[in-house]
Amino acid sequence: MKPVRLAILGLGTVGGGVLKLLQENAAEIKRRTGREIQITHVGIRRPHPELNLDGIAQSADLLDIVRQPDVDIVVEVMGGIHPANEVILEAIKHGKQVVTANKALLAEHGNELFKAADDHAVQIAYEAAVAGGIPIIKVIREGLAANHIEWLAGIINGTGNFILTEMREKGRTFEDVLKEAQELGYAEADPTFDVEGIDAAHKLTLLASIAFGIPLQFDKVYTEGISKITAQDVKYAEELGFRIKHLGIARRAPQGIELRVHPTLIPQEQLLANVNGVKNAVLVQANAVGPTLYYGAGAGAGPTASAVVADVIDIVRDISYTEDGAGTIPQLAFEALSDVAILNREEMTTGYYLRVDVEDQTGVLADITTILSREGISIDAIMQQPRLKDLIPIVILTDPIVESKMETALTKIQALPATRGEIVRIRLESLES
Amino acid sequence: MKPVRLAILGLGTVGGGVLKLLQENAAEIKRRTGREIQITHVGIRRPHPELNLDGIAQSADLLDIVRQPDVDIVVEVMGGIHPANEVILEAIKHGKQVVTANKALLAEHGNELFKAADDHAVQIAYEAAVAGGIPIIKVIREGLAANHIEWLAGIINGTGNFILTEMREKGRTFEDVLKEAQELGYAEADPTFDVEGIDAAHKLTLLASIAFGIPLQFDKVYTEGISKITAQDVKYAEELGFRIKHLGIARRAPQGIELRVHPTLIPQEQLLANVNGVKNAVLVQANAVGPTLYYGAGAGAGPTASAVVADVIDIVRDISYTEDGAGTIPQLAFEALSDVAILNREEMTTGYYLRVDVEDQTGVLADITTILSREGISIDAIMQQPRLKDLIPIVILTDPIVESKMETALTKIQALPATRGEIVRIRLESLES
């Protein structure tokens, strides 16, 4: 099969990320799709020596690129309304499939763009337009397709969530945190889109359409930002068992649909209340499945590229299927399975929680720590618990270590004269990325 | 287009749920697929007067059902290895598409079943086999397809998580909670599959295959249950900042792949540590998107049916596409968009957090509560805060009320002689289902 050919329009943070991801994960992606993806054109306004563009045609004439016959898919990652709108329409007219991360464009002009796409029998894929790397569009359009969706509530602007998190955790003011967010690059010099909720309203517009099957109606979203939230109210909310989150909410009410973006007190014990920093999450309430929640990075080169390239892969499969009936999703996700070894228990690596009950503590602690140290096991924490039934429980947390070494150490500790009963050993994972 | 025709094998909790969901959400599902789904056969061993089976052929001869020409998709929701294995193989030989929720069957015999499906160019869809209603199979196979997946860790057995949650929250013993779980119907009379991790190992086997592209290797999963976890260790873990969760973990290590199911200490601040009760969640670490998490109901009639029917919808779309090029996923998820009204702000209903700063409190509290009461606004909590800059902040939480009434009340409260500054009004949502 010949490769599927891609034009990437824009090589900024997101576009550069898409290019690099397609290059770095090329082998794994080909294992999934059974087909090569070739970048034939990039649309750029300045040279990009930091990127590998060997063999790729470079041009600033975007309309010309989308008319080229050696382009199957146009990836629009420039952002902004113009000229993205005109370029995508031209691509559609030339029968190109389109992938875009442009939430503002779709929320404000999507009805016409999707109509044009339907008329020309092409897709506009937009997973990256909402919640970055979280595949929330696929989840709602396909994964929850059996459900009548009742409402959804999402933290869909990372900048706003970062500001509210800092205000709560450190008692800082809005102005103070905003300044830091701008210095960190989380917030733009003009932060209006983020802090006044416009960006979230764009995303909510898209989510509501696919949840309820309604046209895109950005102008009807009630939008309120976080700039008036004070440290005082954050504190009072906390005392009452709530946290303030900037949510996009779409809800079917008896009289119609509510579309609203505003600061919201939610109960502290809700998972959504515990989504901190620049992370995003969307909670969906649907009639068959009940509540489900989707969490992850809502912005950044890698996460956005993950969503853009997932859309590309979907389209590559569709193209393969149309061309020769191949390209359905492989049963176990990959066209060819790998025979990489599965490790035995002794070869696995984890941290450990150990509880050793000892009769008399004199010297025992030294004996235990010496045994662990000789096996190369480093201790992360050690805690002597109050005497219980004449025994002193010693609790130890270790750093990750291969299980065979822990086995050796435990055999020796178990054999110490002071050790009573069987040593408790529970594995420990930091789950850090 | 003629309807797509379904046979449902088994009408227990899950099968009954699938039937009811297809009947109850028929209109919404047709809006999504543009095509009718007709249940032509059910495979049952006893009458089901509680279900509406009008016009559906009923039989106990499952092999006969899957050979019928008026069946396009076979939904296997009987569970167990036999005769499910034989029936699915027969269905495949007759060119039927298969949807199953049978994790044990797939984990132990999936390699042969998927091979047979490939040979006959049909799909075996199995979203419901892992984590119930959470669309985790679709997320990993499609949504994260651009990524090299590094590891995943999941709470994928609700019974085990319920037991550990109760032990932690109430200091109860394993045996005590297990007994209650059995009485509540969360745990089987023979709880081995759940509490010894076999069920979780089945699910992990499937997750690992689609994450890494490896054959199903259930026999190589290291599996340890929760029956030896004591209230004492749960408490010590808590004191050290950790929680004990029963996790299925699949990880690429330098020497090979780790597949393991065991109790695990994880940091309290991790979202996974805050997944309580019978709920499931899967955390996936992938190279482009970073960590993402998927949370929801892992079992039960509705959630499982949600996943089964999502698979059916995917297949209906594939069939439509093959037959006449229709059936691609609609751009905004539905074939026909609805013109339901979007409400104005005044028509929206939410709870509220109010802060009224007052100069002198005598009688003011009564004035405020009277105004709220006259507008039909009920107060959920009221808290007088310590005097701040000569003003007394009164904080009020209200039950949900239509915004126009709150506007009226706030205008009146703002006009009270004791009110100083602008009243702070932040919306409040319980996010309960």
From TrEMBL, chains A, B:
By its UniProt entry, which Pfam families does this protein fall under? ACT, Homoserine_dh, NAD_binding_3
Question: GO annotations under biological process?
Answer: methionine biosynthetic process; threonine biosynthetic process
Gene3D superfamilies reported for this sequence: 3.30.70.260, Dihydrodipicolinate Reductase, domain 2 (3.30.360.10), NAD(P)-binding Rossmann-like Domain (3.40.50.720)
Residue span(s) of domain ACT: 353-433
The organism's superkingdom is given as Bacteria
A GO molecular-function term, please? Answer: NADP binding
Spell out the CDD domains in the cross-references: ACT_HSDH-Hom
Query: Per UniProt, which keywords does this protein have?
Result: Amino-acid biosynthesis, Methionine biosynthesis, NADP, Oxidoreductase, Threonine biosynthesis
- State where NADP(+) binds: L9, G10, L11, G12, T13, V14, G15, G16
Sequence positions that bind NADPH: K103
Q: Which reaction does it catalyse?
A: L-homoserine + NAD(+) = L-aspartate 4-semialdehyde + NADH + H(+)
Annotated positions binding L-homoserine: E188
Q: Where is the active site?
A: K203
EC number(s) from the headed UniProt entry: 1.1.1.3
UniProt xrefs under InterPro entries: ACT-like_dom_sf, ACT_dom, Asp/hSer_DH_NAD-bd, HDH, HDH_cat, HDH_CS, NAD(P)-bd_dom_sf
Q: Which PROSITE patterns match?
A: ACT, HOMOSER_DHGENASE
Instruction: Describe which pathway this protein belongs to, using the record's wording.
Output: Amino-acid biosynthesis; L-methionine biosynthesis via de novo pathway; L-homoserine from L-aspartate: step 3/3; Amino-acid biosynthesis; L-threonine biosynthesis; L-threonine from L-aspartate: step 3/5
The entry's family comment says: Belongs to the homoserine dehydrogenase family.
Q: What is this protein called?
A: Homoserine dehydrogenase
Tell me which species this is from.
Answer: Acinetobacter puyangensis
Ranked from the top, the taxonomy reads: Bacteria, Pseudomonadati, Pseudomonadota, Gammaproteobacteria, Moraxellales
